[in-house]
Predict the 3D structure of the following.
Amino acid sequence: MGVTGPPGPVMDRDEVDRALARLGAEHEAIETSLLALQDHAGRRLLEGAELTGVTKERWATAEASITLLWTYFDAYTDALRGARDIRSRRRWSSREDLAELTELLRGESVTVAGSAAGTAATANAPTLHGAGRLSHSFSLTTLVDRMNELYASSLDMVVTADAVWSALPARIDLLAAELQRTRRLAHSVGVRPGEHPAGDDLEHITHTLTSLREQVVSDPLAFWMPAQGSSAPGGGRPDTTVYDREARALEDVRREIDAVLTVRQDAEQRLVKLRDVLSRADRTLAEARTARGEVLAKIAATEVPVVSGPPTVLQEQLATAAEYRRRAQWHRLSPLLESLEQKAEDELLRARESLSAVTQPLAVRAELRGRLDAYKAKVARHGLAEDPFLIERYDAARRMLWSAPCDLRVAEQAVLRYQQAAAELLTAPRVPEQGGFEDRRGEQ
């Protein structure tokens, strides 16, 4: 592409020297960056990896961009070298030299072959303007800007992939190692796939982690979360959603296995306690049955609840629990023990309630006997123990309470009559007679 003359005013020697110094510094910085990108561990890994998905697509673009970067850089280097050669011809550059330098430093003096554009276009990378042209011309400033854009996009892709590879596979490997330890421990306590939910969970976690690692290695960019509003290369963080979920699931399984291990450690003690609770419940029920026979013989005109026998299903489940322990089937023993412990406590409570319900009539009779004797003692303290009327009422109530069978309703009425008579006698006024007192009470 031809030019008719230098763009704008011709630069003087000082302007040329300052421009060459600035361009030289930019050239050095770009070269350093390109070499660092060339040696970047992430780039080397990308070159040797079998990529898939979005990473494969973006790496093809990045490779084309890096190739175009070097093409631009070589053209930039040649243009800068040519400008320096012109400036070094003379200590005091002629006007013709300054005009030529102005064209080189400010004009579209850098020519890049059009074939580079075709290479970049195949990978959807940033391309040269006018891809069908045989060559393309740029100013040095424009070329630096384009190199910066290509470098930033390429570096972002490389840094992002390297960040995911540096973070996730190592964490997945550590979790997988912990998973293997947990699997061995689970197997030792009988937690196996198809036999225990935790065993099925371990299988699921194993398959998920294996698949996750393969995906992370082949398509790391699929596990990247860009930072909102960040334009810096590699701005963001690895997406650990799947990893975190499986880590939590493994922790849940570990807690489940710890519970099973606890069962293994104290299984015998818990079984002994279970046998004791069930034995106490059986003895309490036996006592209730004996008490029922006594109540039926001693108490009349009352309903006594029937006492059921001990549930055989709990004894069968206890025998099953003992068999699980003998066979070291801790994963089955754990839920069975928890269920049995609650049922055994409920059975003991039921037996105690049954005994209380059966012996309630005897308790009522004992309360009436105690009340009768208490009033007799109170009467005696007031010097009325020999009163014939009270003696008659007391004897009537006592015969009813100490007879078998005892009619509680009739006996309670007799006790109440004795209480009423005693209360009336104790509250009635008395007058002295021949050095003593005579009771004033009406006929009963």
